[in-house]
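Quick one, T. Sequence first:
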Amino acid sequence: MLQRLKINGFKSIKNMDLELRPLNILIGANGAGKSNLISFFKMLNEMMSDRLQQYIGISGYAHSLLHFGPKVTPQIEGELEFEFGDATYKYHFSLRHAAGDTLIFGEENLSAKGLENNSRLLLLRDSLGSGHQESKMIDGVAEGLQTAIPLNYLLSQFRVYHFHDTSSTSAIRQSCYVGYNKLLMSDGGNVAALLLRLREDNNIVYQRIIKTIRLIAPFFDDFVLEPRGNNVILNWREKGSDQVFGPHQFSDGTLRAICLITLLLQPEEQILKLIIVDEPELGLHPYALNIIAAIFGKASYHTQILISTQSTAFLDNFNPEDVITVDRVDKESIFKRLNAEELESWLEEYSLGEIWEKNIIGGGPH
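Structure tokens:
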């Protein structure tokens, strides 16, 4: 589990030191910095895939990533602390502004601390050097570094999900390659292939997904997943009818719900270690929101969840200690986890969403 995250100098995040729990809900006004934290995880995804320079370019180059630009902030620093097995692993890096308005590694360090054979304290530290444009984590794995192998695994075990695009040309409404069926794509574009695999390899999980979708869309009967060549599309049937409908005949909200349910109800041994979802409430009916929130809560027992939301109805489904408020104070984003004891008297009369609306806990535009 990702226990602690430190970020310095990234976009609106000047200094952040945040302890994470199995379930983490970000709330805050527009522009407070929720999306910037999610963007940091996107950058990490690209770093671990040798695409850091590509990410920098499509993000507007380094001056768009550094807190108020390179004159104010010459580098970005990040540190991720994981609990894994009987040890604690840390990945620390800095990205320095360089010629061409890009970023290069100022340092990339790995460490581990734990007990060897349950007795002797084991401390390991490795440096992957400086001055490189892409992460050298894979090089560390190739060299057999005891720190690099677990950290490379942990840093590859999270993904940021956005199911915003459900337009007529979105990937989810098109056919997808049957073989891309191991992990759900960030935009849900391969959900048909993933569902097909689950139907064939783990029908119990597949039927659980179908039954959950029916709670939100009672008219839905089942998917009709019939590969044509190497592709499959998200066709389906309605209850009481033999007619086959295509993905273009699902509403936007239903498609998003299908993606969320499929993502969260995957077999425990196949689900990622950290799932990050940006505004899962988009297009969902309040009843559907409650179901999705319950699934998030259940999933957090076997994976770690980070969500950003603008919905008070969605927030009402969670405990105060799961919630992190994000406020813009003196030109920087401030992250603060709620304290349940401090809110005890308020929660006797109001829901968590109502307290948020009243700006009692922060995370608002006032």
